[in-house]
Amino acid sequence: MVVQLQRHTFTVSDYHRMLEAGILTEDDRVELICGEIIAMAPIGSRHANCVDGLNDLLGETLRRRAVVRVQNPVTMENSEPQPDIVVARAPRRRYVDAHPTPPDIFLVVEVSDTTILFDRETKLPLYAKAGIPEVWIVDLTARRIETYRDPTPYGYREPRYLYPGDTLTLSAFPEVTLAVDEILA
After folding, report:
1. Model-level pTM?
2. Are 40 and 32 contacting, i.e. CB atoms less than 8 angstroms apart?
3. Which residues of 22-38 are buried (b: 16+ CB within 10 A; e: fewer)?
């Protein structure tokens, strides 16, 4: 006899109640993705170094025009991912009582070395469906940055691949130009 196993999905409220009840703790490396609690990959030194560099670079460049959040949650419908970097609307106090939601977000950055397929095939469509205007995937293994703009419920209409020697801009801040080399350093 074949038994069909049922999966139980969670809402963002369920997920928060698990934190409040101590079932999950803030130290657990998990994300809520499409109603499922997913274990996050360990952070390697190259990954951490890239995230630190992006935080410094974007923080200095966007000072007082946006909030740069590092590995903090974004609340969406049945998901609460923790992107490596989120550039959100200022002021910072806006996020004291709640995490940013898609209308608050200018840019999401995922830094990938071992998680490239998950970031590209699971998280990227999630961000597009939520209407996040711009996503960068920093692919440390391929030494490139994938940029995605113009979200639709089915994906992004404007993918671009940038390599060392190229520059990129943030669509929300077109006067800001960053060197790919500096991000991949």
Report:
1. 0.92
2. no
3. eebeeeeebbbbbbebb
- What are the pLDDT digits (tens) for 115-164? 999 999 999 999 999 999 999 999 999 999 999 999 999 999 989 999 99
* pLDDT (tens digit per residue) in 49-59: 999 999 999 99
Confirm whether 87 is domain-assigned. yes
User: Distance between CA atoms of 9 and 7, rounded to whole angstroms?
Assistant: 6
**Is residue 61 domain-resident?**
yes
Asked whether residue 122 is domain-assigned, the answer is yes
Q: What is the CATH number of the domain that holds 135?
A: 3.90.1570.10
Count other Cβ atoms within 10 Å, centred on residue 75: 18
Q: Is residue 34 part of a domain?
A: no
